[in-house]
Design a protein that fits this description.
5-stranded mixed β-sheet, 547 residues, Alpha-D-Glucose-1,6-Bisphosphate, Chain A, domain 3, binds 2-acetamido-2-deoxy-1-O-phosphono-alpha-D-galactopyranose, binds zinc ion
Length: 547
């Protein structure tokens, strides 16, 4: 309460610059063109200090703009147990950022120090330590922001030096930073750990053990597109260890040039592949002529992953987040005893962007519960934990994981399912993680002896398209019903309803919705229908209605 009041006072007393951009700390933190990020950096630092005192534990800051282009960047904080900043703190970060004038970098730093000093005067600082963990992606601007944060925290004067502990893990994936913050908290560890070792011992070792137990038939090679980002740096460390046992499943890394940040996410990576629905650059001809190759693409901070393969006649088959969720659901149904399944709630959480046919498949073929959440893994994670004992959640773009509660773990322990328990240990429950999701999917395909082409044939996606549209003020777009309908601008939803109904909709599969992006200054329009023509027709008309 004390902290909140101080906060509110601060926000109220700052001068406002009407020309200043309106910042917003959303479910993925702050994200925008890197030259505009000084103020969001200030707000993030302030909240991290407060949060660290508040929790009396390590708080993480990840510097990344994920799948966004190289010139963008962003920040988000990580809680002591690996979660994201609680929803009710988000407006405070937003308020701080919007209360500050955009100024010279140095003036800004001074102001920053002044406010932090000021703000924390009344707090019982004698008892609190400032504990912060930093991590960043491979962007050039990430180095600048990370240097600023190190200097800023280490220069703070209101604390005895002994009480400041800043640990910088440098270039790491977003999920690795979540993992290591949690590990510091659980182990009460105050000194820097060997992150790659801790992380790979936790997830990679069980994967290798599991691989040694299966007969590798369903595919012979996995090509991993690293988006020229941090995934390459991390996986390159793992590859020699992997090859020590001469496994019959070959791994090949492509798009690994993380040193050249101008190539990050360009013509490659999970977002490029999902959006364009075709192969990224860098795939060799030799890979594409063999049909026993599975492909995947990570995004720029390696928290999401998309799989794909080529059919016998070389058609591109996208295996996205919806397919990963259904695959994992099917695996649980297949491998767990009926009796155990009857005791627990197993279900899947998706967003409005999930393909309609995946939702029908979950309900009608898998007979599982399915819930719709608002965009942003934070929302999906929450709903998975709230509604299920085993909650599988994925955004269609490949961001997700599985969460289990104690009820499930206890029930499982009364059956002697060693291999399944080994499988469970591959899951990074803290957050969606491209590297552990890769282990999970590969393990399932091998354990089920499932050819990726047959995974693709489980159901047919409805033709669909996601486009964006620049509007004067995206804040004017307000939604309800898990973002599937617009309440504002007034009248627009009625127009969309009319367009959707007037386009041939004999099978009732036409679906279109509009929402403001939380990470880009655009609104997104999604449409799916039984034919490409219908999708195109609806999109063109809705675009007209918006403009
Ligand atoms: P926005 O920009 O709010 O649509 C995008 C993705 C989300 C999620 C966030 C955070 C789509 C349609 N939206 O959100 O799924 O990944 O970025 O990274 O892909
Ligand atoms: Zn990402």
């Amino acid at each position: 309460d004390f902290l909140q009041q101080t906060f509110n006072e601060l926000a109220a007393n700052r001068p406002r610059n009407s020309n200043a951009p309106q910042f917003s700390y959303g479910t993925s933190g702050f994200r925008m063109e890197s030259s505009k990020l000084d103020i969001p950096l200030f707000a993030t630092s302030l909240i991290t200090v407060l949060r660290s005192f508040y929790c009396s534990e390590f708080i993480g800051i990840m510097i990344t703009a994920s799948h966004n282009p190289p010139q963008d960047n962003g920040f988000k904080t990580i809680e002591p147990h690996g979660e994201m900043l609680p929803h009710d703190w988000e407006p405070h970060v937003t308020a701080i950022a919007n209360a500050v004038y955009e100024g010279e970098y140095l003036n800004f730093e001074k102001l920053f120090l002044l406010i932090a000093d000021d703000l924390l005067k009344g707090v019982a600082l004698e008892k609190s330590d400032l504990k912060i963990i930093l991590g960043r992606d491979t962007r050039d601007s990430s180095i600048k922001f990370s240097t600023f944060l190190n200097n800023f925290f280490n220069k703070l004067t209101f604390l005895n030096k002994k009480r400041v502990n800043i640990i910088d893990y440098s270039i790491v994936t977003t999920p690795q930073l979540h993992f290591i913050v949690r590990k510091h908290t659980l182990n009460a560890e105050n000194t820097k750990m060997d992150l790659p070792k801790e992380y790979f011992d936790a997830f990679f070792k069980p994967f290798i053990t599991l691989l040694a137990q299966v007969n590798i038939q369903s595919f012979k090679k996995l090509v991993i597109d690293c988006a020229n980002g941090v995934g390459a740096l991390q996986l390159e460390q793992l590859l020699p260890l992997y090859e020590e046992n001469s496994p019959s499943l070959k791994l090949e890394l492509i798009n690994t040039n993380y040193q050249d940040c101008s190539r990050l996410n360009v013509e490659c990576g999970a977002d490029f592949v999902k959006t364009n629905q075709h192969l990224p650059s860098g795939i060799s001809h030799e890979s594409t002529i063999k049909s026993d190759v599975l492909f995947c693409s990570l995004d720029g901070d390696a928290d999401r992953i998309i799989f794909y393969c080529l059919s016998k006649d070389k058609e591109f088959c996208l295996l996205d987040g919806d397919r990963m969720a259904t695959l994992i659901g099917e695996f649980f149904i297949e491998k767990l005893p009926k009796e155990l399944l009857s005791l627990i709630k197993l279900g899947i959480v998706q967003t409005a962007y999930a393909n309609g046919n995946s939702t029908s498949f979950i309900t009608n073929d898998l007979n599982l519960d399915v819930k719709c959440a608002k965009t942003g893994v934070k929302n999906l994670h929450h709903d998975a934990v709230e509604n299920f004992d085993v909650g599988i959640y994925f955004e269609a773009n490949g961001h997700g994981t599985v969460v289990f509660n104690d009820k499930f773990i206890n029930a499982l322990s009364s059956y002697n399912l060693k291999q399944f328990e080994l499988f469970i240990s591959l899951v990074n429950q803290a957050v969606g993680d491209a590297i552990t999701d890769l282990f999970i999917v590969v393990a399932i395909l091998l354990l089920l002896q499932l050819d990726p082409k047959d995974w693709f044939k489980k159901y047919d996606d409805l033709p669909n398209k996601l486009i964006k549209c620049v509007v004067p003020n995206r804040a004017a777009f307000e939604t309800y019903d898990f973002e599937r309908k617009l309440s504002k601008p007034v009248g627009l939803q009625e127009k969309i309803n009319y367009i959707v109904a007037e386009t041939d909709n004999s099978d009732g599969k036409n679906r279109c919705f509009v929402r403001a992006s939380g990470t880009e200054d655009v609104v997104r329009i999604y449409c799916e229908a039984s034919t490409d023509t219908r999708v195109q027709t609806i999109l063109a008309k809705v675009l007209d209605a918006i403009r």
